[in-house]
Amino acid sequence: MDLQHSLALIVPEEILSVGGLVLLLAAAWLGDKASRGISVAAVVVIAAAAAFTVPVLCGGNMGADTQAFFGQLRVDAFAAYSKLLIYAAAAAALMIAPRFFDRWNAMRAEYPVLIVFAVLGMSIMVSASDLMALYIGLEMNSLAAYVLAAFLRTDSRSEEAGLKYFVLGALASGILLYGMSLTYGFAGTTSFEGIRAALSGGLSTGALFGLIFVLAGLAFKIAAVPFHMWTPDVYEGAPTPVTTFFATAPKVAAVSLLMRVSLDAFGGHADAWRQVVTFAALASIVVGALGAIGQDNIKRLLAYSSINNVGFILVGLAAATVEGASAMLVYLVIYVAMSIGSFVAVLMLRDAEGNQIESIADLAGLSRTNPAIAWCLLLLMLSLAGIPPLFGFWGKLVVFKAAVDAGMVLLATIAIAASVIGAFYYLKVGKVMFFDEPANKAQGRNDWAHWTLLIASTVFISPLGYLLTGWLGNLADAASAALFLTA
């Protein structure tokens, strides 16, 4: 394996690195007046990285030829699938930001630069096949995310969100690092392939503790119960474009990283971690659903919704099969579309003065004052609830089918029953918008970027989305096959 081959594999990361540095210099020289132009350039940089990623996924790349830097990174179809989702979510977060920050006179040139470097960290995360590369990518993403959460320096809620995210994120990183240290101590290597081989003879008590700590650290990043406590406060306090970013791109990166660690490094000991994942899945489904019922802030409701959806995704991981991994990847695509659409709809809810509307009570009668947004938001809510014939139903169906096929009928049954709880708070939003007397709050106008993303997301999660099931399933199958090549 030579340096030239490794550099050829990481062209997307090279584009993001060079592009991020150039944009950083542009931000320093041109100042905040060039923030919109830098945002457009950031989207172009991310699109260029995506262009070099598509052939890897379509070609189903896997095997030894996908390893870079002596096994530190694995640029296979699984990584490419996750990267494309991350790139799409990041581009959406850049498109919707200027209108929001202009209201606060806070659109700064650093915002797109931070997004690009966060995306670079996530690209390294999903390609990591070594604990060292994992930690580098994770921290690069986290450092940018801490700043993004507190980006509105004039808003006390944003400052609080940034501080909470930083403190709890540092704690999670410490837990993860301790687990990695234990794993290295008992396996004698940081390579995922080497860890799998070293533990093939059996999982010692020390290695088991290392596994548990690693899973706990990653559970924080995906906001799985019982490491979910930061999510509602950060989602509510952070600027809404940043919340949109947090709910999508980092979630995809963390779930993908959890899949690679569990199914690759510790794939030979699925029975050891399956109980932990099963508990986290069911607890996330129930806590997410019950926690959302009493919320009167739409962003906090969506935060609990994200916890609930993570639970359903983990059902596929508990199956520990190729079909389960493929179902998780399909669910992630649908979840990203639903989340982007939901938060864009929230962004479009402004009063006559341009202030953001976040209270669910202020959505009363929205179907009569702004029917287009009301209908789109209703369809997105119903899709998040998994109600057929919307596309969100398909995501839950494939995950439950994978669990049943893996012999985990009880898990699937409990998850299906618990999903009924979640339908209540989604329907509550619809009831307020369509049956309550108009509050006449949402009167602000919106730009083409918001309407484009909202309409595209709504069409994708509509019954028309089922036309993509074959194509999406084939891509997910190719990506999951790459993940299980060493299994």
Automatic annotation (TrEMBL):
EC class (word): translocase
GO molecular function terms noted in the UniProt entry: NADH dehydrogenase (quinone) (non-electrogenic) activity; NADH dehydrogenase (ubiquinone) activity; quinone binding
UniProt-annotated location(s): Cell membrane; Endomembrane system; Membrane
Subunit description: NDH-1 is composed of 14 different subunits. Subunits NuoA, H, J, K, L, M, N constitute the membrane sector of the complex.
Sequence intervals crossing the membrane: 6-30, 37-57, 77-97, 109-126, 165-187, 207-230, 275-294, 301-322, 328-349, 372-394, 406-427, 448-468
GO aspect biological process, one term: ATP synthesis coupled electron transport
Membrane topology: Multi-pass membrane protein
Homology family: Belongs to the complex I subunit 2 family.
Record EC number: 7.1.1.-
GO cellular component: endomembrane system; plasma membrane
Residues in coiled coil: none
Keywords: Cell membrane, Membrane, NAD, Oxidoreductase, Quinone, Translocase, Transmembrane, Transmembrane helix, Transport, Ubiquinone
Segments forming domain NADH:quinone oxidoreductase/Mrp antiporter transmembrane: 128-421
Superkingdom to which the source organism belongs: Bacteria
Summary of the function given for this chain in its UniProt record: NDH-1 shuttles electrons from NADH, via FMN and iron-sulfur (Fe-S) centers, to quinones in the respiratory chain. The immediate electron acceptor for the enzyme in this species is believed to be ubiquinone. Couples the redox reaction to proton translocation (for every two electrons transferred, four hydrogen ions are translocated across the cytoplasmic membrane), and thus conserves the redox energy in a proton gradient.
Protein name (database record): NADH-quinone oxidoreductase subunit N
Catalytic reactions on record: a quinone + NADH + 5 H(+)(in) = a quinol + NAD(+) + 4 H(+)(out)
Keyword RNA-binding on entry: no
Pfam families in alphabetical order: Proton_antipo_M
Origin species: Tsuneonella litorea
InterPro entries for the chain: NADH-Q_OxRdtase_suN/2, ND/Mrp_TM
